[in-house]
């Protein structure tokens, strides 16, 4: 994930920032356009003509905010293998995932955004080093740890429901933009779990401007990801001018200050608090020699990554259910049967557990899977180096074509999720039933096996169990407590992930 990059200037310099970015990209584009390496070993692969000559083809695409749609269109025109830049091939066949994202697959410089020598697990290119860094961060995100924190999540969801009630239903129902409210909830839960203190998004919203800054910087960040040489030059030569620092007043600077404050607070403790995720990392003797600068990168990823993925999933699931009333009717029927207290009892609806949700509301899991398939949080392509597949040929075969070693190969979660070969002619539609009675168990298992929503293989998102847990519990409580009217579905552009706003709704209390 690239969302923890901290580049460019403060918000009040947006015009100058954009101008500088355009000049740099234009200058570099001229260099790349005139400079062509000898011997085009990918000349036989189809794709847009400009893609064979310059990386600026991909840069221009991502800056439109709809590169994911352009990639899908390219695959439907050219086939399962598409050349997207001089040394990058995009793959649309889910069956190729095990060959591309296997245990020993190394990341390309596409992911490297830190000016220093220290890299957290997200930026780490080498698969061996990644495995070690990932292992030290695993305990707070294990299934057991997530389940143990269910009461904490219940408390925050109850606070979230109360905040929505107070702000938007009293004294009268108000129309408001729901787009970021899932992010607010997730950020408070995640920071409380990991640091022992929440950031206060439910109470105060985006007062740090963290979300606003991340989105404002998105276009330039992800454009530079496609120009790794320029990116590294800028970071090493001018990083101190371009990258926010803790407490500098920018949105990401504010978050960095909070991160450092939280970390120092935990380091000052004499003994481990088993309820605090960061303590599970700091007080593990196996992590005694870790670099704190690397840990800081991982901590920032925990904060920003959770918001971008789970918050987006909640937003899109609410929108999809409201746009498909028959799906909401079916979900609410199962939900009310499970949540409504039996006659003669005083059980509160918040008492329903995740285990009960899984067993008594199976349609919810289908709705979540379908939302993440149709509207994945990450839409861009995620490159790896093609390597030797142990046949001694110095390359790998993908979709019946030989790809030489040293080529970037990549899939996009958005493209794979719209595969008509996998999901049928209605792949663009929201239809949760595809995971239930309308499909065979064999197909459902196959769809899960080749699911790319949270990545694939050993670099799958570390927080996906927590994400599913929070989403299930949140949706049940939201639709149990409120009738929701959709006024505007909202819209957004996508870079690595989504800049989405305008999901206008009106809430009415049901209970």
From TrEMBL:
<comment type="similarity">
    <text>Belongs to the cytochrome P450 family.</text>
</comment>
<keyword id="KW-0408">Iron</keyword>
<feature type="transmembrane region" description="Helical">
    <location>
        <begin position="18"/>
        <end position="34"/>
    </location>
</feature>
<keyword id="KW-0349">Heme</keyword>
<protein>
    <submittedName>
        <fullName>Cytochrome P450</fullName>
    </submittedName>
</protein>
<dbReference type="InterPro" id="IPR001128">
    <property type="entry name" value="Cyt_P450"/>
</dbReference>
<keyword id="KW-1133">Transmembrane helix</keyword>
<dbReference type="Pfam" id="PF00067">
    <property type="entry name" value="p450"/>
</dbReference>
<dbReference type="GO" id="GO:0005506">
    <property type="term" value="F:iron ion binding"/>
</dbReference>
<dbReference type="InterPro" id="IPR050121">
    <property type="entry name" value="Cytochrome_P450_monoxygenase"/>
</dbReference>
<keyword id="KW-0503">Monooxygenase</keyword>
<dbReference type="GO" id="GO:0016705">
    <property type="term" value="F:oxidoreductase activity, acting on paired donors, with incorporation or reduction of molecular oxygen"/>
</dbReference>
<dbReference type="InterPro" id="IPR036396">
    <property type="entry name" value="Cyt_P450_sf"/>
</dbReference>
<keyword id="KW-0472">Membrane</keyword>
<dbReference type="GO" id="GO:0004497">
    <property type="term" value="F:monooxygenase activity"/>
</dbReference>
<keyword id="KW-0479">Metal-binding</keyword>
<keyword id="KW-0560">Oxidoreductase</keyword>
<dbReference type="GO" id="GO:0020037">
    <property type="term" value="F:heme binding"/>
</dbReference>
<dbReference type="InterPro" id="IPR017972">
    <property type="entry name" value="Cyt_P450_CS"/>
</dbReference>
<keyword id="KW-0812">Transmembrane</keyword>
